[in-house]
Amino acid sequence: MPADNTNPGGGAMVAAIAGVAVQLIPEIMAMVRARHATADPNAPTPGDAEVLAGLAQAVQSSIATDDAWLAAHPPAPKAPGT
Amino acid sequence: VRKRPNQKTVGLVLALVALLTSTVPAGGCAKAPPNLSPVGVRAFHATRAVQVLDLVRDTAIAAEAATPQLLSTESTRAVVTWHRAAVAAAGATPAGWQASVLAGLENVERALKPDEQQVLRPYLVLAKSILREVA
Lengths: 82, 135
Description:
The complex is a heterodimer of chains A (about 80) and B (about 140).
Chain A: H1 10-23, H2 25-39, H3 48-72
Chain B: H1 7-28, H2 38-65, H3 73-92, H4 98-111, H5 114-134
Helix pairs in contact in B: 1-5, 2-3, 2-5, 3-4, 4-5
């Protein structure tokens, strides 16, 4: 059977996408754990205060990540005259 | 002679996508505990939304850092900038933030090149689904 050359670079693309997916495994597992924690009937039920504090914490942490990335990747300065 | 993509790698990608699509929507659409007040319920759903928005942002950042690069730095900046505003709105606004966040997400998606849209598509679909769910 002849080799499939219709998608040159396809292997590299799949490998790169797999690399991205692998980097997301911890986050996916955290979501799975969070879901099962919520579904556990014996788990303590959070009240308003805990939920609001959790939201504030999630927002703060998320924005900190954004700011760190944006600071590390500033827009390229425009060339003079453009 | 170029080798076909490794079947194990393809299997891994498909398994991860399946895992993601089966767990994230379930987590995003989880019922709020019945003891919460309306304010608590909104915060509960906003937290779920922040988690899925983080997933879009984290995917964009990882794709930008990948070799070969799957998302340009410019496009990633657009995603991160949108994400920052979206998360701030979800945290600060008691209700009604979903529509503007969704509109912003659709604008960012339209600005991406077709191959970049393909990289983020599963996460964008999930984010839109969960944003509509918690609206």
